[in-house]
Amino acid sequence: MKIIPLSEGAFTIDKTKIFVPFDLEKDDLQQRPIGSLLVEVQPFCVITNKDILLLDTGLGFSINGEPQIYQNLKAHNIQPSQITKVLMSHLHKDHAGGISFRNNIGHYNLAFPNATYYVQQQEFSFAMEIGYPSFITDEFATLYNNPNVVWLNGNGTINNYIHYTITGAHSPYHQVFTIQENGEIVFFGGDDAPQLKQMKNKFVAKYDFNGKKSMELRQQWWQKGNDENWHFLFYHDIKTPVFKK
To answer: Beta strands of the chain (E only): which ranges?
Structure first.
């Protein structure tokens, strides 16, 4: 499998839940509001023998009128039309903004029209009910009744090699993905396992729906992953997007 991090840059986020760009060479974290977290926003493209997968979709920002995620894919010689499956861990705005794009008359369309989107049904219902500021419902409402969407309910397997599991850790219906092919295992924990340092240390995050469960799951995944030589994908890690021991 080929793993391609699609970095959208570094940001700080505080209690306002607004992502503010952060220049690692010029900006000072101490000058940001108290409690600000420094994070990367980083979807992943994983190329397998069967698919070109996209794992989460980023913030949905545009550059010169084109979605940033398109430009990041094209930089690796991948056209957006080549994406076959979009796997969504959850629908928080920093993960789901690139699900769709808004055209010049204000209508939202799926950003990857040739792909099948895999979304937990309960996550969608929850996100639509809660809304702003954690969820930007306009950006993913187009999933509703869309033939490109496969609604997931609970745990399962896609095409016999992509496994998904609801954790209810970072958010009530958050899911994680394990991709297994030709003896390789790729693990994407979304916001349950967002950074390498959280895997190595016991850490309970106040921003998690169930911080204790997140911590316990990270410990389990870290042990199992090291035993089985997993490739870990870290969506919010500034320095280490992909790790394999």
So the answer is: 2-5, 10-13, 20-21, 37-40, 44-47, 52-55, 62-63, 66-67, 85-87, 100-102, 108-110, 116-120, 149-152, 156-158, 162-166, 175-181, 184-188, 231-233, 242-243
